[in-house]
Amino acid sequence: MTNELKVYNPATGEEIASVAQHTKEQIEDAISRSHQAFKAWAKTSAHERANIIRKWFDLMIEHKERLAKIITKENGKPYQEALGEIVYAAGYIEWYAEEAKRIYGRTIPSHTTNKRLFVTKQPVGPVAAITPWNFPAAMITRKAAPALAAGCTFIVKPAEDTPLTAIELVKLGHEAGIPEDALQWVIGDGKEVGEIFTDSPLIRKITFTGSTPVGKHLIKNSASTVKHVSMELGGHAPLIVDKDANLELAVKQAMASKFRNAGQTCVCANRLIVHEDIHEAFAQVFSKEVEKLKVGNGFEEGTSIGPIINKRGFDKIVSQIQDAVDKGAKILVGGDTHFDDDKSYYFVQPTVLTHVDPSMNIMHEETFGPVAPITTFKTLDEAIELANDTPFGLAAYFFTENYRNGLYISENLDYGIIGWNDGGPSAVQAPFGGMKESGIGREGGIEGIEPYLETKYVSIGLDE
Ligand code: NAP
Question: Where would I find the Aldehyde dehydrogenase domain in this sequence (predicted)?
Fold first, then answer.
């Protein structure tokens, strides 16, 4: 590993910080300290942990503008969106401060009179997290907050593109009273740090948010020490608009779902599947809205679409547009790019494609950019089959005012998160996660603390 990690503003290419990377020995030392700290943190009372974690929430809210500026600087998303992310991210801390007090066990009626049977929950142990750049705060808090609430200690390795938010969050956690060794960050190359985490017998759980290929790799490497794993992986969300949908609502929600974070979210609508009777009308109204989106630096007033995080992401988006056009797609709006390889900034004008078909890469691969391909369907079964025709199963959306059709669609979509007339279903109190190759486990809600708990069964024998 090289010693210094340089952090750049993706909107301008300017260097904004330089962070020391950890060596293998330093990361192993962090793991060892996490293991030591676990002994004491796991023994604190639930109420004590709840109070400390709640203080962390208060500090995050107190510092929300400062934290949002850091996100816009290192990730590029518009400042108002960054502010929204901080409030959303802090919401997980608030929720799990409360859930710490609700980790219940149970008693089981015995089959004999001379036994008493109990089930208790205890923390799994030191947890290692690896997180992506697209939500530099929220992807950390929805892991760290339930882990710490459960009594686990926690080490996070943030994405190399966005380490600064992670460092600030951990500092605020310490200020709130979380012991320094119970909450740590390490910086380094994903593959190398991942291997140190998975090889260590002291780490009892790996929690990861990122791409499916890396997730598979981590699952495989966790096998040698039989670690718990939670995986929040890639998506390829379909958005179905039925002929009896409220068109205005469908367009508004499709805009929100598709273009948040410049299309760089795992739950962004990736395929718009519209009934053929309303396709023309939908495409027209939708395109008009897309034309209004302002691309630029996230600090400029009115910017709704920031930069693409890096060249790798940009090249993928451009190649998907080119592949679709080569195979017969039409660009209704957008299609332009604005970039500078020397300065390393990359922007894509929000783009709408029509005449798309299943032969095109964009219909199978996650885009992670502001491109909306629209295809059509005749029957609901056809729409559902198209929607499910992917190894991914994270989020899906559909729009209909007909409750029978709505129930039928929601029951037949193979997805972990469904938005019915709703382009933004994610909420701290609700479970978030995917089916199939989109992941294992759920984050958020009452489900989100379970992956950090072990079940212990105690059978007590009494005198005859
Ligand atoms: P990525 O390449 O998988 O990177 C994510 C994290 O994994 C980064 O911290 C990265 O570190 C690290 N990493 C890379 N290679 C690794 C390896 N071999 N072993 C261990 N760690 C490794 O994903 P990305 O392209 O940055 O992020 C976008 C992906 O995340 C998309 O597929 C998106 O759908 C998914 N995502 C899913 C959710 C969800 O909740 N399901 C939420 C957000 C994003 P470096 O920075 O050092 O490479």
Answer: 4-458
What is the 8-class DSSP label of residue 116? E
Q: 266 in ligand 1 pocket by Cβ < 6 Å?
A: yes
Closest residue by Cα to atom 45, ligand 1, is 190
Note the pLDDT of residue 2.
55
> Exposed, middle or buried, 421 (CB in 10 Å: 0-12/13-18/19+)?
middle
Position 173, amino acid: G
- Condensed to tens digits (0 to 9), the pLDDT of residues 191-203 reads 999 999 999 999 9
**Residue 217 Cβ < 6 Å to ligand 1:** yes
**Per residue in 141-177, is it b (16+ CB within 10 Å) or e — as a string?**
bbbbbbbbbbbbbbbbbbbbbbbbbbebbbebbeebe
User: Long-range pairs for 108-115 at CB < 8 Å and ≥24 separation?
Assistant: 114/461, 114/462, 114/463, 114/464, 115/459, 115/460, 115/461, 115/462
The yes-or-no answer on residue 248 being catalytic is no
Q: Which of 130, 189, 368 to mutate to test the pocket of ligand 1 (most atoms within 8 A of CB)?
A: 130
> What's phi and psi for 277, nearest 5 deg?
-70, -25
Has residue 31 got a pLDDT over 90?
A: yes
Number of Cβ within 10 Å of residue 253's Cβ equals 22
Q: Which runs of E-coded beta strand occur in 12-152?
A: 15-20, 106-108, 115-123, 127-130
Closest CA to 125 of 185, 224, 231, 201: 201
pTM of this structure:
0.97
Distance CA 97, CA 76 (A): 30
Beta bridge partners of 117: 108, 459
pLDDT at 464: 73
Does residue 232 carry a catalytic annotation? yes
Q: Whose CA is nearest to atom 12 of ligand 1?
A: 190
Q: Which domains are assigned to the chain?
A: 4-233+438-461 (3.40.605.10), 237-429 (3.40.309.10)
444 phi/psi in degrees, rounded to 5: 90, 160
Place of tokens 């395929």: 271
- Residues 22 and 30: beta-carbon distance below 8 Å: yes
Ligand 1 contacts CB of residue 307 (under 6 A)? no
Express each pLDDT in 137-173 by its tens digit: 999 999 999 999 999 999 999 999 999 999 999 999 9
From the candidates 94, 160, 232, 443, give the one annotated as an active-site residue: 232
> Which residues 6+ apart lie within 8 Å of 190 measured at CB?
130, 157, 159, 160, 214
Q: How far is the CA of 188 from the centre of ligand 1 (A)?
A: 13
Check residue 366 and report its DSSP letter.
Answer: -
